[in-house]
TrEMBL record:
Keywords: Membrane, Transmembrane, Transmembrane helix. It comes from the Bacteria. The lineage of its organism: Bacteria, Bacillati, Bacillota, Erysipelotrichia, Erysipelotrichales. This is Uncharacterized protein. The chain crosses the membrane at residues 17-36, 56-77, 115-137, 166-188, 195-215, 251-273. It comes from Massilimicrobiota timonensis.
Length: 280
């Protein structure tokens, strides 16, 4: 029990809370700026469309038109636990714990803890944005509405019930970010510079957004490239740039993309374990 308490205590300190608070403040600044520059701040818009509050909240997560929230999320992910572990590893501070718990068990526990922590941090950040948006910008109402044909955005993405849809969106996007956090965790064996690793989430996140568009021309079925686009996990159905590949539903596309990334995470984590066992 002492080993476990020491293990988790090593990842909890005031500077990390300060970092998350700073990121949230930057998200709020981005949200207020986006609201002022959008149609949602136009006089009478919120009265004309009862779901204007939900429309605005979802629009914050559209990577193509509002990338700032996404960039800030990807900035915070490697700094929740992964950076600390890399730093502890390079300082040899984890060796006594690895000896008592075994290296494999130690990394497995930290890996799972990192994903759970990432899920909770992202969920709290999103809930914070939702509450501030509701209280200060555009009140959120759960009123199903019929949209005009060709309307540029709808709020019923996953199911016709607006309240359930919002719950699903918050949980699924938080789970998607947690999975990406697991991938970043596993890349420690490839990105060994601590200072580069701090901001590697932003670089990798942008690559995962752009990579499918870059390779689609080289594939027999170009649409298949977009199955692995990170938007499917963290901005499900919000981009409206193209139809889902192969006519997949939002649910099917999310599950398929999630399984692919889960497989990649597992393989990368096994490589991390093997390298730690071989070179330490």
């Amino acid at each position: 029990m002492k080993e476990h308490r020491f293990l988790w205590k090593a990842f909890l300190y005031k500077e990390k809370i300060f970092l998350i608070v700073i990121v949230f403040i930057l998200m709020l600044i981005s949200m207020f700026y986006s609201f002022q520059q959008s149609i949602f701040s136009s006089p009478g818009y919120q009265q004309a469309y009862p779901n204007a509050g939900l429309e605005f909240f979802y629009s914050l997560f559209r990577i193509g038109t509002n990338p700032f929230i996404f960039i800030l999320m990807m900035l915070v992910l490697p700094n929740i636990m992964s950076y600390d572990l890399l730093n502890m590893h390079q300082n040899h501070a984890v060796y006594p714990i690895e000896t008592r718990l075994t290296r494999q068990r130690f990394y497995q526990e930290v890996y799972i803890k990192n994903m759970i922590s990432s899920f909770l941090v992202v969920l709290c950040l999103q809930l914070g944005l939702l509450i501030v948006s509701h209280m200060m910008l555009a009140p959120i109402h759960f009123q199903s509405m019929t949209y005009p044909e060709g309307y540029y955005i709808t709020t019923q993405l996953l199911c016709p019930n607006e309240c359930l849809n919002l719950i699903f969106f918050l949980l699924l996007t938080s789970l998607g970010y947690a999975l990406i956090s697991g991938l970043l965790f596993s890349l420690q064996s490839n990105i060994t510079n601590k200072y580069v690793y701090r901001c590697c989430g932003v670089i990798i996140g942008i690559l995962l957004v752009l990579f499918p568009a870059l390779i689609q021309g080289y594939l027999p079925y170009p649409d298949s490239a977009f199955i692995i686009q990170i938007n499917n996990l963290v901005a499900l159905g919000l981009e409206h740039v193209r139809e889902n590949p192969f006519g997949l539903s939002h649910w099917s596309l999310y599950i398929l993309c999630f399984l692919i990334y889960a497989g990649i995470c597992y393989l990368c984590f096994q490589v991390l374990l093997k390298r730690r066992e071989s070179h330490d």
